[in-house]
Amino acid sequence: MWKDYSSDYIKHNRAVSYSIRAASFISALFLSFLCNLFYNFWLDSVQEGEKEVPHVLAAFYLIVLLLVCVSLILVIHNSFAVSMQNRIHQFGIFSSIGATPGQIRTCLLQEAFMVSLFPVLAGILTGVLFGFGTVRAMGAFAENLAGGRRMEFSMHPAILAVSLAVSLLTVLISAFIPARKLGKMTPLEAVRGSGELQPDKKRRFSLAGAWFGIEGELSGNALRAQKKALRTTTLSLTFAFSGFMLMQCFFTISTISTKHTYFEAYQDAWDVMVTVEDTRIEDFERAEEIRRIQGLESAVIYQKAEAESLIPIDQISSELQEKGGLEALAGIYPAVGEDVYQIKTSLVVLDDESFAEYCDTVGIRAQMDGVIVYNRIWDSIDSNFRYPEYLPYIKEDTEKIALVKAMPQGVRTEERVEEPTEETNGMTVERMVEIPVLACSEIPPVLREEYEDYALVQFMPLSLWKAPAEMTKGSGEGAGIRALAEESEADLYIRAIAGERNSAEALDVLEKNMMGSIGKGYEAESENRIQEKKDNDTMIWGYKMILGGLCALFALIGIAGMFANTLGFLHQRKREFARYMSVGLTPEGIRKIFCIEAAALVGRPLLFALAAAIAASACMIKMSFLDPMEFIREAPAGPIAAFVLIVVGFTALAYYLGGRKILRIDLAGALRDDVLL
Length: 677
Known about the structure:
Blueprint: H1 2-12, H2 14-47, H3 52-85, H4 88-96, H5 101-144, H6 157-183, H7 187-192, H8 207-225, H9 227-259, H10 262-266, E1 272-277, H11 287-291, E2 296-312, H12 318-322, H13 325-330, E3 335-336, E4 340-350, H14 352-362, E5 371-374, E6 377-378, E7 390-391, E8 400-407, E9 428-441, E10 456-461, H15 462-465, E11 473-475, H16 481-484, E12 492-498, H17 504-518, E13 523-528, H18 529-571, H19 574-582, H20 587-624, H21 628-633, H22 637-663, H23 667-671
Parallel strand pairs: 4-10, 5-9
Antiparallel strand pairs: 1-12, 1-13, 2-4, 2-8, 2-12, 3-4, 5-10, 6-7, 8-9, 9-11
Helix pairs in contact: 1-5, 2-3, 2-5, 2-6, 2-18, 3-6, 3-9, 3-18, 5-6, 5-18, 8-20, 9-18, 9-20, 9-22, 18-22, 20-22
């Protein structure tokens, strides 16, 4: 009996089941896509040989899948609730003639299974195709990255079975919630109910009524009467708007941040970078050969080291002293005695030819017996790291700097030296070298390097670096500069600029020739500016595609839920609109009601999402130390407006399809059931 009844109802009420079919299809597509995507990610981590990560990933994927199922249940169950609400009167009659609540629930769940089975199967297959395309696209991105490998799509029958089971379970739970509520109604309650919306009988001020007259009052009353059912629609659209807006704002802020960092700051500083591993600059023998490479415009060969300097306080620039000295800018800073700073020093050792070119840039005569000080320090008081302002570090007339390897007699921490001795300005000096200062400049050599904010950076020629102890003015056994820089890096760097800077082919050839010139005697790695930029752009684009795809699926769920609920909402109000038209409300008035309701349906989630996006963007901007006006100038207004128009378009389409049927109804037929109330 129940099977025949369900089949007959579905056959004669296809329009009512469309929303359920659409919701079931979208749900199955989404769940199948996630199951296949998660399975391939997990399988890839297993193939990589990771032991602990796959277990963590599996737990994470299960949690995400559970949260998605709960979200889908909240969206889908509304479609079932609207369909079942229209049949309260019918089930009341069945209850009065002996049908049990269990039989009614079974009937409704049976209908849900029959209606949703084929959409679920279609959604699962579509989700597999989406997963295949996503994994293949991500694999292609990864393969093009330096050191990347291709990730292939894999499908397991168990994943299909899990997708089918989870999808059907999600749909049936969505149907069970309103079915259980309907089954608890007494026969008298059900027979007296019509499934029609009950108007709000409380008199209250209505903004819609004040603005749009009687049509606004009727719209507001209907939305308030159905506020619980429309709550899910509001939430789904809010999540859809919020997800898209936050994604757009995040990537906009990320793009702005990138302009202040690596690729924007150093894109003109290099074309090819070669790292020669475990090689000292004084031991490298390929410098001249590299400079003869065809297509090479300039090359700088250098090495980095760390040391410490003793700088008298009166040698600090007047601008820095006015700010309160190093203590004010850098916090607690090592001070030796009362009149000397112990300053961390970054040494950049350039080969002699590169140092001579740097001297020309600074505007001094090339000399190989001194250093050029990078004379600036970040003003952390009146600027932030995104928009830094700088002060002179030391006085321009500084003639020499003492490099030291000093051990305090007291307790030394990362911040300061405590209980210093009086020997050598409070230090027990193991080694010290006084180095002439050739110049103080705020222009560094063209290198792909960032320098510490509070370190005193010094550029020196190779000849000075490898000068023996007796040729440097200092004290202590082995007072050569190399003896002071025990923290020097073991690697050598070669920065190359090509003659054809914008040609990927030219940079590839240059990179290949440089690696060939270095030869087999050295272990070396190379980087290509254009290829690095492509890899970075590819990675960012991949992230955008993944997050954008997820946002699109969430948006699709929200739009589908809104579409389905709107059609069901309008179908449930046939008699309501029939009464309005019977007392003289024109079709134009009905359409006005539709427009007001559609605007309210989209407007509230949009306002909530805008508020959330603005608040989140403000937090991200503040945490990133960006100028808000810079974000405003590049705000993603176009994509957000396009997305809003798409949602508005689908909402208008739902009201158009539902309204077209309402305007064509037979008034007498629609009102006939009132005698049953």
